[in-house]
Structures are given as structure tokens and as C-alpha cells.
Amino acid sequence: MSSSVPADTPIRVAIVDDQAMVRQGFGALLGAQPDITVVGDGSDGDEAVELVRRTRPDVILMDIRMPRMNGLDATRAVLSRPGDDNPRIIMLTTFDADEYVFAALRAGASGFLLKDASADDLISAVRIVAGGEALLAPSVTKRLIADYAARPERKQSASLSQVTERELDVMRLVAAGHTNAEIAGLLFLSEQTVKTHVSRLLSKLGLRDRTQLVITAYESGLVTAGE
């Protein structure tokens, strides 16, 4: 798992989209923030892989549908690199029910945004992901994960045999979309204890962040859509 960006260090962002206007618009918006530095941009997945090698971004805004190498394949390529310094990836899409989204999240993307998201949502997304959290707040993300989980062809292959009962309680609440503070209140724990449980879950299950933890909760059958 990659670590979060230190609070006093500018967040290095790369933007990969086949539309020049999207790259320019997002670049201008993010570059104007005092805590964000745009280190480069590209128009397809091949350029994304090269950008990571050359500029070492903390966060990539990655379009899903692009020529040559699409965003899904680029995500797999970027996150399969050895080492623990791989960037966190926010997928960009114009669709709220894109087949690629499920595969991208499973491949290790930290979340996604619709391209028509507000400026505040875009900036917040970069900061959230750079801080080590998954982008689970937008309702569309929860809806997509629930839709994916309800599909009969999904595989229930994830093993939770090494997870404690208390960790399972935390995992269920994470899958329900609760924050650490909310989970602490529901389970009568301190917020730091909840953070520790989440960290242990990620380590035991070999996951990058909360998004993958949610998907694993569904894939294992720990929770089902509609619960």
C-alpha cells in the first residue's frame, strides 16, 4: 500500500485524458491550489505509464475511455509496478454506470469522479485520495459498488479466515459507507482504534484502501447488496 502524502508537502498530480480541454481545465483548476502541483498530463494510457516513470505523481486523474491503452489497462500497468510508492488513481468518466468502473476499482483505483463534478468536488477528491483515504463519499460510487455486488456472476472468492470478529464488525460498517468517526460511535470505540482496525484489515487482506475493502466485503459474502 502506498502511504499518504505528508501534510506539508504539495500533492503531485498528473492528468490523463484524451480531451485536451479536460486536461487544460483540470490542470488550471488544480494548479491554482496552494497545496497541489500539476506535474504533467497525457492523452492515453501509454503516456500515463510514462508519466509515472518520469514525474512520480502522488495522484493521477485517469480517464477510463481513451485510444491505444485505455484507463483500466493503464491502471493495472501503473499499480503493478514493484515498490510501495505507486500513485493513487482517481478514474474519470462521463458515465455513471460504466462497466470499466468495477474492474478499475478491483485493479486498485482509489475511486472515481464523473467529469461534470464540481470544482470543489474535484479538488476535494484529490486531497482525500492523497491523504490515504478512498473516494467513497459520492453516492454514485456507493450505487455502482452495490450494483456490482448484486450481480449473480460475481465471484465470492475472498477469504476472511484471518480476520477477527471485531474487524468483521468494522468491515461491515466500512462497506455501509460509514466514516471512522461514525464507526467509533456505533461500536463504542475510539476513532484511533477504528483506524487501527481498518489498517489491520488492509494489511491482512493485502488491500490498498477502503474502496477495495468495500468490494472485498461484498465479494466474500460478508455483506450483500441492500443490507
Automatic annotation (TrEMBL):
Coiled coil: none annotated. Residues 12-130 form the Response regulatory domain. The keyword Ligase does not apply. Keywords: DNA-binding, Phosphoprotein, Transcription, Transcription regulation. InterPro entries: CheY-like_superfamily (IPR011006), NreC/VraR/RcsB-like_REC (IPR058245), Sig_transdc_resp-reg_C-effctor (IPR016032), Sig_transdc_resp-reg_receiver (IPR001789), Tscrpt_reg_LuxR_C (IPR000792), WalR-like (IPR039420). Residues 156-221 form the HTH luxR-type domain. CDD domains: LuxR_C_like, REC_NarL-like. The modification 4-aspartylphosphate is found at residue 63. The keyword DNA-binding applies. This is Response regulator. The lineage of its organism: Bacteria, Bacillati, Actinomycetota, Actinomycetes, Micrococcales.
